[in-house]
Amino acid sequence: MFTAILKFVLLYHALLQPGCSGWSKGIHAAASDLNEKSGLAIAVMGPTGSGKTTFVNLASGSNMHVGMGLQSCTSAIQVAPPFALDDRQVTLIDTPGFDDTAKSDAQILEILATHLSQEYQAGRRLSGVIYLHRISDVRMSGISMRTFRIFRQLCGDTAMTNVAMVTTFWESVDKAVAEAREKELVGQHTFFKHAVDRGAQLLRHNDTIESAHAIIRGFLGGSPKPLLIQEQIVDQQMRLADTSAGAELDREMLEQIEDHGQEKRILQEEAEEEIREREEQARQKAEADMARHHEEVARHQREIARLQHPCRGRRGMRRVACELREL
Ligand SMILES: *[C@@H]1O[C@H](CO)[C@@H](O)[C@H](O)[C@H]1NC(C)=O
Fold this sequence. Notes:
Elements: H1 2-14, H2 24-36, E1 40-45, H3 52-60, E2 78-79, E3 83-85, E4 88-94, H4 105-121, E5 128-134, H5 142-155, E6 163-168, H6 175-187, H7 192-197, E7 201-204, H8 209-220, H9 228-235, H10 244-307, H11 316-326
Parallel strand pairs: 1-4, 1-5, 5-6, 6-7
Antiparallel strand pairs: 2-4, 3-4
Helix pairs in contact: 4-9, 5-10
The chain binds 2-acetamido-2-deoxy-beta-D-glucopyranose.
């Protein structure tokens, strides 16, 4: 059923034109010319807010719009103007992150997949992928993990040797803390370790142009490799929903729905527990009221009995005599 939802979303999205991608089409042509002259195309991926556009602008000396929350233009692919680095022409491709405010994760994946498969079909290969991650994050957020898992399936194991896992925002966190986090990232089997074990580089970006270029230089000596999603869509003619990345997104969506369900269950259990507690309190109160009532009745009865006491009103020795008689 969720696959069906995904397919519907993708189909629906295919009918719409992504809003802000107009100008990047002209750049594509330029990028393709350069690619033939030993140009180099590198995609920059990673969660929203990991510094993708900032990195691309810094490295390429361009001034593309940096997303700040509600900007829908950042949910499109942006191809930066090519720039020269060590006699090579480098084209950086800024990609949208998941968890976008204006587009669903399925739409974002569709934008990525469409661009990647069009480029591959046109014979333009990626020389590398830079995957950015904020080292300033205290812990890996749900969206960071989700983004990485989808990325892993998008890229595939074979292309991991052409990936640089780059941590950003080193300047906004204590170095020792950041280094400890970096160690943790590679230690966790579910995260960077998976990529690094398959040949991905683990690098740091310190927000300088030197650092950005040093990262890109790492790709100059390599050769392009297709990403798994490119092979699956173009070579194997798979539909996006059936690709590894599509299936992963499906799983993520399902998990989110389940998490939501679990949350609801917990809330419901808490509500039931509260009702039980309130009922118990009401029962105890009723019992106490009843006991008090019984006591009051007994007191009244005692009072009545006292009022009805036959010796009432007698005094002195007569009363003593009466009371002795009553014992
Ligand atoms: C940033 O990184 C570059 C390249 O790795 C290095 O040359 C430079 O010294 C670093 N700058 C700072 C301020 O850490």
